[in-house]
Amino acid sequence: MKSNVRYPALMAVVFLILCVTATSAEPLYDQYLNTPKETLKQETTQMSEALRKTFSEGSIERSQQRIDFADYYANFKKMVLYGAKLANYADYEENLAFARDKELFKSLPSSDASKPAGSLDQKAFVKDKYEQMKVNVSEEIDTYQDLITISLNACEIMTANDLSGFSGTKENQDTIRRYLDESEAYQVFSQRYERMEKNWPNLADRISRQITFWEAPGRLPDDPIIDPTLTGAIL
């Protein structure tokens, strides 16, 4: 009698061991069928909470704010960096003329085509070098102006149409202000700003307005068009 009782119990234990061992290889559908209803209910509740948290309006809004700010911040830093580099060329015509008059181009490497030959005297050689350098510098200036304009356009559009409200968050404001306080690139730009303002006043003014947008507690007359505090109502 005792052996008959022990046999089913032993078989049950063996069956459980086999089930546990085979769990990793068990098809997902079979796992679902073999999972207790209470466990399934608990897992479903946890999954629902996670989905609500991930796709809630607030979560989506914060995610969009992070995306927008990352885009803006990248363009903001480029704007400052390229602005400082452009300002460095403010007196390039005067400097090149000085170099030409003092014949400082004589020490520059020259190609075979630019080497003086026959009746080509030293003055002609220096003048040729001057014209060559002037063209090269002019092209660099045009490139920096284009790069600044691209970044400025992006920044102005984003602050004027801030649908996600990224400019109204304290975290983003602190990030920009910390950059203005600690960034070496911005310090260089500040030192060269007057030179840039003298030669490229429009670009200098546009950059200044973007910086003021974050420095001042209020907003400029035309920035932004949409108040970030109303974003929640719009969305």
Layout: helices, strands, pairs:
Elements: H1 2-21, H2 28-34, H3 37-54, H4 57-87, H5 92-101, H6 122-160, H7 170-182, H8 184-199, H9 201-215, H10 231-234
Would you write up a description of this structure?
The protein has ten helices and no strands. Helices cover 74% and strands 0% of the residues. Mean pLDDT is 73; it is low at 218-235. 16% of the residues are buried. The N and C termini lie far apart (74 Å). The protein folds into two domains: 2-54, no CATH class; 66-234. It has 235 residues and is mostly helical.
Provide a brief overview of the structure:
With 235 residues, this protein is mainly alpha-helical. It contains ten helices and no strands. The chain has two domains: 2-54, no CATH class; 66-234.
By helix and strand content, what is the structural category? mainly alpha
Oligomeric state of the chains present here: single chain
Tally of alpha and pi helices:
10
Number of strands: 0
What fraction of residues sit in β-strands?
Answer: under 5%
Low-pLDDT stretches: 218-235
Rounded mean pLDDT score: 73
Rg from Cα: 34 Å
How many separate structural domains? 2
Order of helices and strands: HHHHHHHHHH
Helix content: over 70%
Write down the overall geometry.
elongated
Main sheet specs? none
Kindly report how far apart the N and C termini lie. Answer: 74 Å
